[in-house]
Design brief:
This protein has 18 helices and no strands. The protein is mainly α and 435 residues long. It is globular.
Length: 435
């Protein structure tokens, strides 16, 4: 097989690896965000209210956060190929289990299980990208994954809009689980942990992958300077910005459909029509984020190649992105029309998505040999932010200001994340001298 590979030019297996990661990410987010557009039928079926669905999301993100470092360590030790296969099958079955919930406690338990298993996707993906891609392509690769996250979240809003009424929420969850199992089996059969283990990769591609980067992460017995890592100020700043950005994103993918049904679209009397329109409208900012994330990744990598400065390429792009995001969301408070509000939600999400690939690329830039722990910590803290926002939105809505309170918090936390990026120093690997 190797003899048939042209030796005068590089193969492109690394791009196929990235494509498979993108597909798995889309399916992951379809399953993860599916119940965001099912709040009303779920609460009616289980005889509960919005707070229970918010609590279910809270349990998802807490479990997701707590299992970031363990799943990162496990993938590093056991190998990303076997680990990602196992977890993808597991979280798909957990998605189906949500559809079997006939009491609130079952919904909470199934969502927590789904969160614990889905925690593995980005630790695994980061290990794979670090092994398969040179540094000059990491921000764009991270942008692709971020855009696939948003694509999955947008797709499921559209799918819910079309299929929720004819299928019902339980059958629809079973349907969303099946492609995940199929993708996991394909991934296991085709993927290899390292380029030099894949028979389709030739010498030229291996040289491209190795160019300008440190030795790639390895699997096997590893140890980390835990105290030095956890006391690192850059790590805490990375984690803090992730806490607030992830929390803000949960308003868009978890609560925007519900906001639209109970505010600008509340005058639509037909329930199925109102839910379908809210789901389709809520997909639009997600698609805007898909494009924004790709552009942000391209810009960040371009600035890095032109200037050689991580501060300019990562911090600079993120700070500008988040400052304009805050300005873009302000008009939402002064308009009542659903289409106009969705327009400003879309502009804001488009611009805020520039900062996401900067965060993922920076974790790879400064993680070094401690990458699984650095990335795991960043994503763990981020998901605590997601958990907090998921649970607090329905509670904010019970205050005198209603949804306005949630919107104020949503906009303000982008500004806090921007401050973290302003003071973060990206020039030194975290605990590099202790590895």
């Amino acid at each position: 097989m190797d003899a048939a590979i042209p030796q005068n030019r590089a193969t492109n297996v690394r791009y196929y690896v990235l494509a498979v990661l993108c597909i798995i990410t889309v399916l992951n987010y379809v399953q993860r965000n599916s119940i965001g557009g099912m709040v009303e039928p779920i609460t009616k079926s289980l005889a509960t209210d919005d707070s229970s669905v918010g609590d279910a999301a809270f349990f998802f993100f807490v479990a997701y956060a707590l299992f970031q470092i363990p799943t990162g360590w496990f993938a590093h030790w056991w190998g990303a190929r076997r680990a990602l296969t196992l977890f993808t099958v597991g979280w798909s079955l957990a998605t189906a289990a949500i559809g079997l919930s006939f009491a609130v406690w079952m919904l909470l338990a199934a969502r927590a299980l789904q969160g614990a298993l889905q925690a593995a996707i980005f630790p695994c993906a980061t290990l794979i990208m670090a092994a398969w891609l040179p540094p000059s392509r990491r921000a764009f690769a991270s942008a692709l994954l971020n855009s696939c996250m948003l694509t999955g979240g947008a797709m499921v809003n559209n799918l819910n809009g079309w299929l929720l009424a004819p299928f019902g929420w339980r059958t629809l969850l079973f349907t969303y689980a099946l492609p995940g199992v199929a993708a996991a089996l394909f991934f296991y059969l085709w993927f290899r942990n390292r380029p030099d283990e894949h028979s389709a990769v030739n010498l030229e591609e291996r040289e491209i992958i190795q160019a300008g980067r440190s030795p790639e992460p390895h699997t096997g017995k590893v140890s980390y300077p835990w105290l030095a890592i956890l006391l690192s100020m850059p790590l805490w700043l990375i984690c803090t910005q992730q806490f607030f950005r992830a929390g803000a994103n949960r308003f868009n993918d978890q609560w925007l459909p519900r906001y639209l049904t109970t505010n600008p679209l509340k005058e639509i009397e037909n329930e199925d029509e109102r839910k379908a329109k809210a789901n389709h409208y809520a997909a639009i900012p997600q698609y805007a984020g898909v494009v924004g994330g790709l552009i942000g990744g391209l810009i960040s990598d371009y600035v890095l190649r032109r200037t050689g400065s991580r501060r300019a390429a990562r911090n600079g792009v993120a700070v500008v992105s988040l400052s304009f995001t805050v300005l873009s969301y302000v008009p939402i408070f002064f308009v009542q029309d659903a289409v106009t509000q969705v327009f400003f939600f879309s502009v804001g999400y488009f611009i805020s998505a520039f900062s996401s690939p900067c965060a993922y690329a920076l974790s790879m830039d400064v993680g070094g040999k401690n990458l699984p722990i650095v990335f795991g910590a960043m994503n763990m803290i981020g998901n605590f932010g997601a958990a907090a926002m998921s649970a607090m939105v329905p509670r904010f809505n019970n205050w005198s200001g209603g949804w306005t309170v949630s919107l104020i918090v949503f906009v303000a936390i982008h500004g806090v994340a921007m401050v973290c990026w302003m003071v973060l120093d990206p020039r030194k690997q975290i605990a590099a001298d202790r590895s």
